[in-house]
Design brief:
By secondary structure, this protein is of the alpha+beta class. Helix content is 31%, strand content 31%. It contains three helices and seven strands; from the N terminus they run βββαββαββα. The longest helix has 19 residues.
Length: 135
């Protein structure tokens, strides 16, 4: 038996979010981010009938004296629940802004195929980068 082939328009996006609240060095657990995602996804399904599937990869962002654990949240236009690419891009941005608030992040980056977007609440930089205190 041959599997049925289903495709959707190409789309790729990644949200990178830190696992520390603000610049406090207070750790944010991956399981909490997953809970925030589940809650957001459930609301999105109920209110807009949008199924926003997310892959999660752990990584670190390193710059000068700064070395912070992060999560990379990956998105595609999943053929099981295809979404108009314009709508999908807006929903990924909406999710990034939601996660900024609930995870107490000053800055979040979203990478799309055609642009990189940064959302920030202020232009402050983590003091560990400025002071290089970990060296």
């Amino acid at each position: 038996m041959e599997p049925h082939r289903i495709s959707s328009p190409q789309f790729s996006a990644t949200i990178t979010i830190g696992l520390e609240s603000g610049y406090s060095r207070k750790p944010l657990d991956k399981s909490m981010v997953t809970e925030y995602l589940h809650s957001y996804q459930d609301t999105l399904i109920i209110e807009k009938d949008i199924h926003l599937s997310v892959s999660i990869t752990e990584c670190s962002i390193v710059l000068s004296g700064h070395n912070e654990p992060h999560l990379r949240l990956g998105f595609i236009n999943y053929p099981r629940f295809p979404i108009d690419v314009t709508v999908l891009k807006q929903e990924v941005e909406n999710l990034a802004k939601y996660l900024m608030e609930v995870c107490e992040q000053n800055r979040v980056v979203v990478e799309f195929m055609d642009e990189t977007v940064m959302f920030e609440f202020s232009d402050k930089t983590d003091p560990r980068i400025l002071l290089n205190e970990n060296k």
